[in-house]
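1st attempt posting a full record on here, be nice pls
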Amino acid sequence: MRSLPYDIQFRARARRTQAWGLGLLAVAGLLWIWFAVLLFTPYETGEYSRECTSRFTSENLHNSDSRCVNERDWPELLAVLGVSVPAGVIGGVLYTSGSVSHRMAEHLAEVTRLDAASS
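the predicted structure (as tokens):
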């Protein structure tokens, strides 16, 4: 039973990797929520406290001289979306890797137990 400490460490490392992946997926989800808030909620301009409709409506989309367009610009929205994509991809890869590693350790332990029982 010399492999038991290694197996315990391997499973702990797999769970830690899984937790990091879940954390990054949560960050990506929060960024998507922030993106939706910026895109779909009405807002006010800073100078004149003018009420502006959401960026999703086409009212402000083609009006380039509007103060509303300058107040909430598309690059800010795309930056939030752009940061969420790598966080989501890396989180998904880490979570999957941790899950597969843990599942493989369980499978190997079960095969070892069954081999020992049949001998």
